[in-house]
Write a structure and sequence with these properties.
The structure is a single chain. The protein is an alpha+beta fold. The protein is built from 17 helices and 20 strands. The strands form four sheets. Strands 12, 13, 14, 15, 16, 17, 18, 19 and 20 form a nine-stranded antiparallel β-sheet that branches. The chain has a five-stranded antiparallel β-sheet with strand order 5-6-10-8-9. Strands 1-2-4-3 form a four-stranded mixed β-sheet, sandwiched between helices. Strand 8 and strand 9 form a beta hairpin. The longest helix is centred in the last third of the chain and has 21 residues. The radius of gyration is 23 Å and the shape is globular.
């Protein structure tokens, strides 16, 4: 019976390959057994491991490299095999956490799934952690926690390393070390012609800077080398409050965001969450202090807010803290984002809009859903660290005011509600933008790691940085492989005029 099933799977794979010369070419190359097809367990495992349901697409085949040389061969094979009839389009998958469909997967093409390239090693002599592109941050923290060191990284363990860094990356450590991308000292990159190169401050330095926010427009990164630092346990957790605490919460947030520079060890996310399952709104204060010091004074104003429902704060390690911030797999999910000045008027307007969208969804949604509003400080100290570390392309060094990063986070379970939540997402951003403009508090920056497909984060970096990104892409990918053959992600070709 096992032999028969194996034969069926082989025949199914062969049939799929015959329909797609791109997959045939990969299967005939030295990659051979690393190319998997529908009905195989490896294929199903790969597709099923994407966080959001919309990302669980159906590529014709998936190639699962285990080395930079494998990635090089995959790119060269797909570039050589392409034709007008079969363009050999492919997707690049790291952690698979971006919610919108097609960002890191593809229907009817090839997905290069990097998830088997997931090792983390630490070189004590140069205090550098080398991380594979298929790693998730939980894999990184599990290794580094045992060694008493850390790197800035994702705040939910299941988030992928590659996507977060290439989009900039916020972290618990941003007020001390800048964005996650600012802590990379070397990228190992496979270019469109298959060459494996290093990009750092001395070698391919223009590519090095472009990768700090420029996403997948230049090549496939096969190793990230990050500066590490000594780090023991830290303090943090989640405190839950009723919705009636909103006014006090917003005032505390406003003051905290303006004073991070006084104590850069503190990090905070404010989350307002409505669930149709229990028809209630809760406020979640997500605290993190990157010292093993309980209840530090920087959070005093939050702590004094009455009617706390629960509090999980404790002294623990990064692995444990980031496990607490996970969201459930397999729902239909949407992220969209905007940035504005730290202004109490705008913060209150955000919550008014949040309530109005809940009312709309309660009237029109078919299935169950969750609507969440998240606010995070982006003070000027973040970008000051970026400049000190050589700069990135995010353009936040232009900001003279402390900013707020807003995330509209939607989850639902019924495909009939797709258009409704698409509207809620886009209209939320539009309404916040319009109000922020009306009070002089708007900012053009769009955080790529939270952006939805219809947003344009690359253009938000400013004309100078967008022009720089295009020049780097033309230099390292002169035939525009990563613009034309890789449709997923945010493309320079679609960013509009610089």
């Amino acid at each position: 019976m096992k032999i028969f099933l194996a034969a069926v799977l082989v025949l199914a794979g062969s049939a799929a390959a015959n329909k797609c010369p791109c997959c045939t070419a990969l299967s005939k190359s030295k990659l051979g057994k690393k190319v998997v097809y529908p009905s195989s367990s490896s294929y199903e495992m790969s597709v099923g491991s994407y966080w959001a349901a919309q990302s669980q697409l159906s590529p014709t085949c998936i190639v699962r490299p285990t080395s930079p040389e494998d990635v090089s061969l995959a790119i060269k094979t797909l570039v050589t095999a392409r034709s007008e009839k079969y363009p050999c389009r492919f997707a690049i998958r790291g952690g698979g956490h971006t919610p919108w469909g097609g960002a890191a997967n593809i229907d009817g093409g090839v997905t290069i799934d990097l998830s088997l390239m997931n090792t983390t090693t630490y070189d004590e002599q140069v205090a550098t952690a080398s991380i594979g592109p298929g790693s998730r941050w939980v894999n990184v923290y599990e290794v580094l926690d045992q060694l008493g060191v850390a790197v800035p990284g994702g705040r939910a363990g299941s988030v992928g390393v590659g996507g977060l860094i290439l989009g900039g990356g916020n972290s618990f450590f941003a007020a001390r070390y800048g964005f996650v991308c600012d802590n990379v000292v070397n990228f190992q990159v496979v270019l469109a012609n298959g060459r494996i190169v290093n990009a750092n401050a001395k070698e391919n330095s223009d590519l090095f800077q472009a990768l700090k926010g420029g996403s997948n427009n230049f090549g496939i990164v096969t190793r990230f080398d990050l500066v590490a630092f000594k780090q023991g346990n830290l303090w943090g957790g989640v405190a839950v409050y009723p919705f009636s605490a909103t006014a006090n919460q917003l005032q505390a947030f406003f003051n905290f965001a303006n004073n991070i520079v006084k104590d850069p060890y503190g990090s905070f996310i404010g989350l307002w969450r409505y669930s149709s399952a229990n028809n209630s709104i809760s406020i979640l204060d997500i605290f993190d202090y990157t010292k093993a010091e309980a209840n530090p004074p920087t959070f005093d104003e939050f702590v004094k807010i009455p009617n706390k429902v629960s509090d999980s704060s404790r002294i623990t390690n990064l692995t444990d803290l980031t496990a607490e911030l996970e969201q459930a797999y397999g729902f239909r999910d949407s992220f969209s984002t905007i940035t504005f000045k730290n202004d109490l008027r705008i913060l209150h307007k955000v919550l008014d809009i949040f309530e109005s969208k809940i009312s709309l969804a309660k009237k029109k949604a078919v299935g169950t859903f969750v609507i969440a509003t998240l606010i995070q400080p982006i003070p000027t100290i973040f970008s000051q660290h970026s400049v000190e570390r050589g700069g990135n392309v995010l353009g936040l060094d232009r900001a003279k005011d402390n900013l707020v990063l807003f995330l509209c986070d939607l989850s639902w379970n019924n495909t009939k509600d797709d258009e409704l939540f698409k509207y809620i997402s886009s209209s939320t951003i539009t309404e916040i933008r319009n109000y922020a403009k009306s009070v002089g508090g708007d900012n053009e920056y769009i955080y790529l790691d939270y952006a939805d497909k219809w947003q344009n984060p690359l253009r938000s970096y400013g004309s100078k940085n967008l022009g720089k990104l295009r020049r780097v892409a033309e230099k390292y990918d002169p035939t525009a492989v990563f613009q034309r053959q890789v449709p997923g992600g945010f493309k320079l070709a679609a960013a509009g005029p610089a």
